[in-house]
Specification:
CATH topology of the largest domain: Alpha-Beta Plaits
Oligomer: single chain
Distance between the termini: 42 Å
Number of domains: 2
Radius of gyration: 23 Å
Number of strands: 10
Strand content: 15-25%
CATH class of the largest domain: Alpha Beta
Shape: elongated
Largest sheet: 6 strands, antiparallel
Number of helices: 8
CATH architecture of the largest domain: 2-Layer Sandwich
Length: 264
């Protein structure tokens, strides 16, 4: 609370350009301050939640997050619990998805995956995963075969895939960009029973193609699993076209608990 800006009781203030600003909600009503005289902010509300979770045990965290969840979702009877999270979402629907995304991640981290998935569906939040790979099959061949690839992978129709040649490192968020640029490894995927004598070490960024998967209402981990099934079929296509000459390299990354993980 100490770092949040105080406002006059009518909530008007002067912005950096010298304009008088009177915050209003979606109905055009002037936003009233809380009893301490603060204007709610997404950073402030999330900091308070984070502080509560840090000093709580596992059972308490689940109870706190369940309470937040009830404020953010509409029940089967069409009702929502009252509280600062509900009030915040109703006043500022432009950041409601951001708040819901942060809460859904906390729910998932604390074993409340069903709550997390329900929240994602209600707020249109998508699970996301990234595949980086290199093969002898051309990008056009992969794109032309994508309907069959998805069919063999049993991909859900809601799974959204974006395929491109090259890895747009500079467009990635810092954590992913750093990992893709700096991490080196042996990413070769070999047929069963085939071994190699050498150990390869190349950066992820050296791989030729990338594919991004988004899955509405699902976790990043679940999305990575679906992307893995698709990449397996791309590997099969490469083997079919190039027979035993194919050298396929691939890796899948997804974000969990604030850090990027490799899908096994």
């Amino acid at each position: 609370m100490a770092n949040e800006a105080r406002y006059p009781r009518d909530m008007s203030f002067i912005d950096k350009e010298g304009n008088l600003v009177r915050p209003i909600d979606r109905q055009g009503n002037i936003i009233l301050p809380n009893k301490e005289g603060y204007l709610a902010s997404k950073s402030g509300i999330l900091k308070r939640l984070s502080k509560k979770l840090k000093v709580s045990n596992s059972w308490q965290r689940k109870k706190i997050l369940s309470g937040v969840y009830k404020q953010l979702v509409v029940s089967n009877t069409g009702k929502t619990a009252k509280g600062e999270y509900r009030d915040f979402v109703e006043i500022r629907d432009n950041v409601a998805q951001y708040l819901a995304k942060c809460v859904s991640e906390a729910l998932e981290e604390n074993g409340l995956e069903n709550h997390s998935n329900r929240l994602k569906k209600e707020y249109g939040i998508k699970g996301k995963a990234y595949a980086f790979f290199d093969c002898n099959v051309s990008l056009n061949e992969i794109q032309e075969s994508m309907p069959e690839i998805r069919e063999y992978a049993s991909s859900p129709s809601e799974l959204e895939l974006s395929l491109q040649e090259g890895i747009p490192v500079m467009k990635m968020e810092p954590g992913l960009r750093s990992l893709v640029s700096q991490h080196c490894g042996d990413f070769r995927i070999l047929p069963s029973g085939v071994g190699v004598d050498d150990i390869e070490s190349i950066p992820i960024a050296a791989l030729r193609c990338s594919m991004v998967a988004e899955y509405p209402g699902q976790s990043n981990k679940r999305t990575a699993g679906e992307l893995g099934d698709v990449l397996n079929q791309v590997y099969n296509l490469d083997r079919h076209v190039n027979r035993d000459t194919a050298i396929f390299r691939g890796v899948i990354l997804y974000k969990e608990k604030g850090r990027y993980l490799f899908r096994e």
